[in-house]
Amino acid sequence: MTTLEKLSNWNIKGYQQDLLKWYDENKRDLPWRRERDPYKIWVSEIMLQQTKVDTVIPYYNRFMKFFPTVQALAEAEEETVLKAWEGLGYYSRARNLHKAVKEVQENYGGQVPAEKEEVHKLSGVGPYTAGAILSIAFNIPAPAVDGNVMRVLSRIFSIYDDISKATTRKRFESIVDEIISKENPSHFNQALMELGALICTPKSPACLICPVQEHCAARAEGVQELLPVKAKKSPPKKKQMKAIVLKDDAGRILIQQRPETGMLAKLWQFPNIEAEEVVEDYADLKKHLLFMGLQVDIFEKVHEVRHVFTHLIWEIDVYIGELKGMAREADLELASLRLVEKGDVDLYPFPVSHQKINDFVLKKGDF
DNA sequence: TAATCGTGGTG
DNA sequence: TCACCAAGATT
């Protein structure tokens, strides 16, 4: 039976009512639900991408103190924005948001556009986020299909499409187009996601207390634990790294900015290399530094840091050492290096892996 | 289409 | 310890 056939004898109105009533009575009190400022909805939606509500809340509150309006964020320095995002991950979200907010300030007089084509053009705003902004902020009946929605609807209609495939989202968007409440699309979309977060969870869904259990095909068939179908991802690969905390004769610390593209773009770090083989030696590290124009004394290995990303694992041996002589300004510039006071290291946005190094060597240690 | 892009929580 | 997961977008 096709989804269309399932929908023909499926109680849309009853489903909407049961879902919306449950949402009204059970929705969480979240900071971004207390207002309907499109800018604030937008920021919350970007932060919530692949990130749990509990993780986002403190970041969201702090971000709104720093950048309460489109204008405030548009006028901020990118590095300040990255610092506010530090630890939240997926840093291209911060750079894209900042870029897009500048566009809104320039091209739309600071008002977030309420048309699908315009919103979707903004950097970092894809199909889900465009739908979320339109529906939640402007109460426009547009689908906002995220992982929650695909999981819930996979079960409601007993759909076995692989939700890790890009094309699957489109099928669910067309379903939402048919079943969305035209009276309250904002609450309907949020209710679908809230149900996925609180009741229709990935493992052990709480079908017994589900407000829409009588509308659910997977529940009727007893296959709720088998849905949704999702392809497995390959395990992350390990990379051996060596990093060094270097001090010059004035006691300043050497840090380095990462490239503009790729992983952790534009964040700062301690100078490091990827070691092809595991060698208990720092000759390769020393050679790398010399290549950047730096003569150093490496003292000892003081720490190990392990950090797991989605698709790779860094295993970092951490060394300490000292710069010999005066580094040439041009050499530092060329390698995106900077000498900063020990107390100023915290002013720069670091990935968590290098925050760990900072914590151990400079804060806990006596280096 | 499939890989890339972070981090923290959970069972 | 580890596999899996979370209000995805970009290339």
From TrEMBL:
Species classification: Bacteria, Bacillati, Bacillota, Bacilli, Bacillales
UniProt xrefs under PROSITE patterns: ENDONUCLEASE_III_1 (PS00764), ENDONUCLEASE_III_2 (PS01155)
Protein name: Adenine DNA glycosylase
Gene behind this protein: mutY
Keywords on record: 4Fe-4S, DNA damage, DNA repair, Glycosidase, Hydrolase, Iron, Iron-sulfur, Metal-binding
Chain ranges of the HhH-GPD domain: 47-198
EC number: 3.2.2.31
Record text on cofactor binding: Binds 1 [4Fe-4S] cluster.
Entry cofactors: [4Fe-4S] cluster
